[in-house]
Design a protein that fits this description.
This protein is 31% helix and 24% strand. It is α+β, with helices and mostly antiparallel strands and 213 residues long. The strands form 2 sheets. The protein has a 6-stranded mixed β-sheet, covered by helices on one side. A 5-stranded antiparallel β-sheet has the order 1-3-2-6-5. A hairpin with a 2-residue loop joins β2 (40-44) and β3.
């Protein structure tokens, strides 16, 4: 008996894994789910993961995304934020939807593009994952060639840089040279739990105004 997508229920914070899925089947599911959905998808060599984020997940994602935007603007660096865009490469049998992502170095290459094809377009320079219920799988990002991945999990940010085809954990981000990005993000997210998101972001903006010239 075959199941349809309408019969599948994934609660917030939970995952659904589907094995032995062909690329064409994955594309069909992607089209059926559409773009206006809460679920995040990850596909690697026949294994599809569908995850519905919790409110805490979305709050942390927004705060970290805001921090990145504030810093890039303060540093006068042009960027394109692409949120949880689906990045896929059928030749590599990989697809992933980061929680949020940014084109920084390659910003000019995707201006005005409403559809991206990673067989010809560059991947985002920075992808961000909020891991509350599962550990981020790096295979997709690695094969798609995304140079920097941030993972926020268990109250702390970890930075991974792609070197010689493998991710190496780093204490700093090349996109924010000289800035203690891990400490800043951890502190701001901790503050958001005490004073609320808007006040935490206001406090971060004050720090930027005082320390970045």
């Amino acid at each position: 008996m075959e199941l349809t997508l309408e019969q599948m229920v994934v609660s917030p914070g939970q995952q659904l894994l589907i094995k032995d899925l062909s690329w064409s089947q994955f594309e069909t599911i992607l089209n059926e789910l559409g773009e206006s959905r809460a679920a995040r998808l990850s596909y690697s060599n026949g294994l599809l993961e569908i995850m519905v984020p919790l409110p805490e997940h979305e709050r942390n994602k927004e705060i970290i995304g805001d921090i990145v935007k504030i810093l890039l603007e303060a540093l006068n660096i042009d960027f394109e934020p692409l949120g949880s865009t689906t990045f896929k490469n059928p030749q590599m049998n990989q697809a992933v939807e980061p929680d949020t992502c940014f084109y920084i170095t390659n910003q000019k290459a995707i201006i005005g593009k409403n559809r991206l094809d990673l067989t010809i377009d560059p991947p985002p320079d920075l992808a961000i994952e909020i891991d509350l219920t599962s550990r981020t799988q790096f295979d997709n990002y690695q094969l798609l060639g995304i140079p920097e991945v941030w993972r926020y999990s268990n109250g702390t940010l970890s930075i991974y840089l792609l070197e010689n085809g493998n991710y190496i954990q780093s204490s700093s981000s090349p996109n924010f040279s000289g800035i203690a990005i891990i400490e800043l993000i951890n502190q701001t997210l901790q503050q958001s739990q005490i004073v609320g998101t808007s006040q935490a972001i206001k406090g971060f903006k004050r720090w930027v105004k005082e320390n970045i010239h």
